[in-house]
Specification:
Blueprint lengths: L7 H46 L5 H5 L12 H32 L5 H14 L2 H16 L4 H25 L3 H9 L4 H12 L1 H16 L3 H5 L18 H9 L4 H33 L1
Length: 291
């Protein structure tokens, strides 16, 4: 015997409630399956990279130059070149991307400039990286008549800027208007409201956008083929061709030499786990500072 009798209204709602509960559980199950599938493939990729790359990873990889066919060697010059060009590309892209994102979120709510910028940014986000490489080749490499690390850094910066712009704008739009109004009511000028209140409130999201850009450009090969090319020897001259890991991996992986193929796997493992380590370390350090 039921302790509380069910009213007619409750009896009518009951089937609808059960239907919603079923749909909710179904959606949750599908979401968990999708997440599990993604994690399985991610772990699979990391496991293959680790098993194939660990065999070619030794001290020589970090101390010797890229070898000629049939001889021993390492990836020192390629590691240095990738570090230099990714760092330069990030340094160029970060201020441009953050300033553009701030303008779109805070000042560009009227007029035609902001919608046009968003449209161009969306095009750049989806543009194939080889097009960016050809563009930089046409406007820079063909004019100076030689490949260089500067050209590679410019190409990587163009790829990174849209990612930082989109992330910065999205994060700033999530800041409540009441937070800005409170700072303005205390007499803070608009530039301080943006820099000291809005940007500070979403700095973890902005840093995440920068890290996403670094992850995006770290493995780009096509733009560097048209800009920095490659260099078998050590070179710190930014105005000359420079070795880099993506192009070395591409060339060595296609070769018939076993030692080159081992170095290609080792280089792919280095890029992947370096980006993963940067993301983890930055998040841990940033979290400790905020706490």
């Amino acid at each position: 015997m039921n302790a509380i009798a069910q009213t007619p209204a409750q009896a009518e709602v009951s089937p609808l409630y059960r239907k919603r509960l079923f749909i909710n559980r179904l959606a949750l199950t599908l979401s968990l399956l999708a997440m599990a599938s993604g994690m399985i493939f991610l772990l699979w990729i990391l496991a293959v990279l680790f098993m194939k790359g660990i065999g070619g990873l030794n001290a020589a990889v970090f101390t010797q130059m890229t070898p000629s066919p049939g001889s021993a060697g390492g990836l020192l010059n390629a590691i240095f070149g990738s570090f230099v060009m990714v760092s330069l590309g990030t340094l160029i892209a970060t201020p441009i991307g953050i300033l553009a994102g701030v303008y779109l979120a805070e000042f560009g709510r009227r007029g035609w400039v902001a919608p046009t910028t968003r449209f161009v940014n969306d095009i750049l986000l989806s543009a194939p990286s080889i097009i960016i490489g050809l563009f930089v080749y046409t406007i820079y490499v063909a004019q100076v008549k030689h490949f260089s690390a500067w050209a590679g850094a410019i190409a990587l910066a163009i790829i990174a800027i849209p990612v930082i712009v989109r992330t910065t704008e999205t994060m700033l739009l999530l800041v409540p208007a009441s937070l800005r109004e409170a700072a303005a009511a205390l007499g803070a000028p608009e530039w301080k409201v943006v820099t000291m209140v809005a940007l500070r409130a979403v700095r973890s999201g902005v840093i995440t956008g920068i890290l996403l850009a670094v992850a995006r450009i770290s493995g780009e090969t096509a733009p560097l083929l048209f800009t920095a090319l490659n260099n078998q020897f050590w070179s710190s001259d930014l105005n000359a061709p420079m070795a880099n890991l993506p192009v070395v991996i591409f060339q060595f992986a296609m070769s018939p030499f076993e030692n080159w193929i081992e170095l290609a796997w080792a280089g792919a493992m280095l890029i992947t786990f370096s980006v993963l380590a940067i993301n983890i370390i930055t998040r841990v350090v940033f979290r400790q500072r905020t706490n």
